[in-house]
Amino acid sequence: MTAAARIRDTAIELFGREGFGVGLRAIAEEAGVSLGLIRHHFGSKEGLRRACDDHAMGHLQELQAEQVGAGEKTATLLDQLAAIEDYRPFVRYFLQVLRSGDGPASLLIDRLTASTLEYLEAGVAKGMFKPSIDPPARARFLVLMKLGAMVLQHALAGDADDAYDRYIDVAALPGLELYTQGLLTDDTLLDGYLRQREGSSEETAARHERDPS
C-alpha cells in the first residue's frame, strides 16, 4: 500500500470512528507518516476528505457492479456493506458525513442515489428487480430509508462497536420480507395516489394556462 493510500484509509477509519473533528496531526500519527506528507499528497484536510469520499463511493460502486454481474438479488447495497467486515469503515464514514449535516451530506445522498439508480436499472434489465413507475424516486427513497434507519440504530446503540450488527439483526428479516413479498395485498392505495397526483398535475397545468405569470 502506498503512503497516500495508507493515509486515506487511516483517515476513513478515524473520521468514521471519531467524526470530522479529527485533525491531520492525529491522522499522521495513526498512519505513521509526517504531517508534511499528508499535505504533499492531499493539500489540506478538505482535499483529504474529498479523497476519502471518492474512495468510499468507489468501493460502493464496485460492490454494486459485482452484484449485478453475478445476478445476485439483495435488499439494498447498504445492507451488504454493513454486513461485510471490510466495508464497515466505509459505512461508519458515510454515517459521519450524514451526521455532519453540511453540504457534503447532501452531496453524499445525491451520489448514493445516482449510484443506486444505476444499480437498480441494471438489475431491472437483468430481471433481478421489478420496473418502477418513477425510477429516480424509488432510488432516492431506498437510500433515504436505509440511511435513516442506520443513523437511528447507531444513535440508539450509543455509538457502540456492535451498532451495525444490531442493525442487521433488526432489519435483515423484515427488510428482505418486504422487498421480496411486499406488504399490501392490492393496488388500491397506489392507484388512488396516482389518480390524485394526475389530477393535481392537470389542475396545476390548467391554472398556469389561465395565469401564466
Describe this structure as you would to a colleague:
This protein is mainly α and 213 residues long. The termini are far apart. It is built from 10 helices and no strands. The protein has 2 domains: 49-182, Tetracycline Repressor, domain 2 (Orthogonal Bundle); 187-213. α1 (3-18) packs across α2.
Largest sheet: none
| H/E element sequence | HHHHHHHHHH
Mean pLDDT over the residues: 83
User: What is the number of strand segments?
Assistant: 0
Total domains, how many? 2
**Tell me, what is the CATH class of the largest domain?**
Mainly Alpha
Radius of gyration of CA atoms, rounded to a whole number: 21 Å
Shape: elongated
Oligomeric status: single chain
Count, helices: 10
Brief rundown of the structure:
With 213 residues, the protein is an all-alpha fold. The protein has ten helices and no strands.
Features:
213 residues, mainly alpha, Tetracycline Repressor, domain 2, 2 domains, 10 helices, elongated
Q: In terms of topology, how is this protein built?
A:
Layout: H1 3-18, H2 24-31, H3 35-42, H4 45-70, H5 77-83, H6 88-100, H7 103-125, H8 135-156, H9 163-181, H10 188-210
